[in-house]
From TrEMBL:
Its cofactor is Fe cation. Gene3D superfamilies: B-lactam Antibiotic, Isopenicillin N Synthase, Chain. It comes from the Eukaryota. Residues 157-257 form the Fe2OG dioxygenase domain. One of its GO terms (biological process) is fruit ripening. Its EC number is 1.14.17.4. It comes from Musa acuminata subsp. malaccensis (Wild banana). Keywords: Ethylene biosynthesis, Fruit ripening, Iron, Metal-binding, Oxidoreductase, Vitamin C. This is 1-aminocyclopropane-1-carboxylate oxidase.
Length: 307
């Protein structure tokens, strides 16, 4: 099985209905799909790859002194090559930092800030286009998801970009690249490494590779889209495996509700669906999520129902 790859440009032509259906299938049956011809210039994507790889090169020594490396080294010393060696189940083999509109960004390489600012603006626009497609496919009024995320324009939705690298790992069996989880928020847009794989999703009880596709943007739906869609678009478990060769680059942008936004199942134009999820403030959900990120998601909805 392969993750659906969808030509986003065909929304504008005579294949619009077919493309809408393919996106609906990607949301409903997979929770992940890849967009090509999405409108983001290849030249910009090449610059993003360059500045992020250079940024990691400047940070690499810091990763060697990081907690995951120290813990793995200690475990290897204690366990040796024993067949029943323990795993590090509470850390990720990941170098990561977050970009937001109002936080401190790396100063080097010098082109980093300008390039990533331009990239984030393109991704923000793409996220809003994808949400409008979801509105249409779900039978919502245009702009419904975006309005839910902003409290009908009263608050600013969260838009953050997580820049990650997963360096080569000497003991693949002992540590995860990124532990299995679902994403808390709304729409996630990933520009993943087109050479080094490792991202997998859980589908029908099997872990499936998200195959690298050059210059594609991988879309996945978070927990809040599951709620707004009343369960039609489920958030999906995913993970990153460690690799012994290659340094996986992963640039994930998150278009999430404002912490003050109220989230509840959306209403179809015919108003017929019965709500299967609670109504809550997104900040309350995040209070639960940060403690339970790597656990089953259903108790998170139950916990926030009681808030």
């Amino acid at each position: 099985m392969a993750i659906p790859v969808i030509d986003f440009s065909k929304l504008e032509g005579k294949e619009r209905a077919e493309t809408l259906a393919r996106i609906a299938n990607g949301c409903q049956e997979w929770g992940f799909f890849q967009l090509v011809n999405h409108g983001i210039p290849v030249e910009l994507l090449e610059r993003v790859k360059k500045v992020c790889s250079e940024c990691y090169r400047l940070r690499a020594e810091g990763f060697k002194a990081s907690k995951p490396v120290q813990l793995l080294n200690k475990l290897v010393e204690e366990e040796g090559d024993a067949a029943d060696a323990e795993r590090l189940d509470n850390v990720d083999w990941e170098d990561v930092f977050l970009l937001q509109d109002d936080n401190e960004w790396p100063a080097n390489p010098p082109e980093f800030r300008e390039t990533m600012k331009e990239y984030r603006e393109e991704l923000r626009k793409l996220a809003e286009k994808v949400m409008e497609v979801m509105d249409e496919n779900l039978g919502f009024e245009k702009g419904s998801i975006r309005n839910s995320f902003s409290g009908n324009g009263e608050h600013q939705p969260f838009f953050g970009t997580k820049v990650s690298h997963y360096p080569p790992c000497p003991r693949l069996e002992m540590v995860n690249g990124l532990r299995a989880h679902t994403d808390a928020g709304g729409v996630i847009l990933l520009f993943q490494d087109d050479q080094v794989g490792g991202l997998q999703i859980l589908k029908d009880g099997q872990w499936i590779d998200v195959q690298p596709v050059a210059n594609a943007i991988v879309i996945n739906t978070g927990d809040q889209i599951e709620v707004l869609s009343n369960g039609r678009y489920k958030s999906v478990w995913h993970r990153v495996l460690t690799t012994s060769d290659g340094n996986r680059r992963s640039i994930a942008s998150f278009y999430n509700p404002s912490l003050k936004a109220t989230i509840a199942p959306g209403t179809n134009k015919d108003g017929s669906a019965t709500a299967l999820y609670p109504k809550y403030v997104f900040g309350d959900y995040m209070d639960v999520y940060v403690k339970q990120k790597f656990l089953a998601k259903e108790p998170r909805f139950a916990a926030v129902r009681a808030v």
